[in-house]
Amino acid sequence: MSDGTANGAHERSALLSFTEDDDSRKIVDFTDWDEEDPRNWPKSRKLINVGIIALMAVLSPLASSMFTPGIDQIAQDLNTSGETVVGATTGFVVFLGIGPLILAPLSETFGRRKLYLICFSIFALLQIPTALSPNVATLIAVRALSGFFGSVGIANGGGTISDMFHPSERAGVFGWYLLGPLLGPTLGPLLGGLLVQHLSWRWVFWFLTIICTINTVLGFLFLKESYAPTILEGRKQKYEESEGGKFRIANQDDRPFWTKLGSSMQRPLRILFTQPIVLTMAIWQAILFGTTYSLYTNFESIYGSKGYYGFSTTQVGLVYLGPGIGFFICVWFIVPKIDTIYNRLSKKHGGEAKPEYRLPLANIGAVLIPVSLFWFAWTVEYHVHWAVTVLSTVFFGLGQITILNTAQNYYIDSFQKYAASAIAAGAVFRSIVGGIVPLFATQLFQQAGYGWGVSTFAFTSLALSPAPLLFYYYGERIREAFAIDL
What is the Cα–Cα distance from 120 to 122, expressed in whole angstroms? Predict the structure, then answer.
């Protein structure tokens, strides 16, 4: 649990102490106002790091949905069915969730910067064979692989922000960063629709190649290492070379490398399946992502030339801006209040900060998600004016941000030493469900209609809506009852 203090070396270290008390080695640690401590960096330096990783977190989800307006064109070009082409989205999104299971703990072993640059370089290069795909099997396989490497921004973004910002100021910054994973799928179809309509579906991936390469180059030039143990390891080596003698990092883990690596690789799944709160919030996020991708992959059927509203491809792309507007409203007006409430409750309780103080605003999302889904379901079912249906998606987007932001800040505060692994634990579940559910959603909507079909998602989210309230009052007791040694 965070104490909100500035001196956070112990709080952020992912290295457990296995050193005896009589260890004669000199300790290497940050001082209170150490300029190399990422939490003491100038604000501009922090925001450059956030900007680069936020762009990474935008581009991989952008790639997940950008080609959806061209599904019919791809199917025709590659001599396959539209349902098969949807598998390219499923493979990408599933591996977008599996990636953090490996990449998050690796960043807690080798540092953040190396993982970002290696993985995103590979992600950028993989867009080339995707653009050149001669058949649907190649398309699906390369897309799945690129989803794995593209997940690095999602896997480590929360941990990087935790590296640089104190708990009392984190939620506001995290809110803007979190726009990336949510805005990507929203903006993707709009940009993709323009490229598909005026060029071809292959240009979607040439476009991704260009912007991902630019982002990677910016990373090589400006991204700084922010993970405290990695920075301190570099300092330790310099001391040993310049001064001689032996040094150790505060709370250093002296176990063999492969033992530490094996332990770190198990960490996300151990967190997911041993922590009831993380598992519940992960299920909720999974339902949100499954709902989102199910709606996004069916917007063409609802709004397109063969759907209820007869929109052009470009007009259908504009529909995706509905949730995006909700995202921006929430990040601008509601997300900053998460820190305000957190600090106020901490002050009220004698300066003691608890992760549960992140949860009150999640109740807004708990109400808006089912309400907006019922609204969308039945206005579409009865062919109400398109503006009324799109307005419901604004509130859906607003609800998404409140739930995801409060949940992920809760993860970071509960598992600060292992923030990346905790976020990865939630990400894997939501991405796998988000990738698989759309495969069955179309059939559900065809058989049950959009009214009852979308209402199925609404009822599921309604069942989980009491979670923030329950965890606010009983979360600390649950965490203590299920405490584990990571």
Answer: 5
d(CA 344, CA 339): 8
pLDDT tens profile 198-256 = 888 889 899 999 999 999 999 999 999 988 788 877 777 777 777 766 766 666 666 66
Helices (H), 18-134: 43-65, 71-77, 82-110, 112-131
Q: What's the whole-model pTM score?
A: 0.73
Q: How many helices (H) and strands (E) does the chain have?
A: 20, 2
Distance of CA 471 to the CA centre of its chain: 22
Which tokens go with 353?
Answer: 């900060």
> Which residue intervals of 132-201 are DSSP H helices?
136-150, 152-164, 167-198
Q: Is residue 302 within 8 Å of residue 445, measured between CB atoms?
A: no
Under 8 Å between Cβ of 123 and 70: no
Structure tokens at 335: 């997300």
* 258 burial via Cβ count (<10 Å: 0-12, 13-18, 19+): exposed
Burial 351-366 (b: 16+ CB within 10 A, else e): eebbbbbbbbbbbbbb
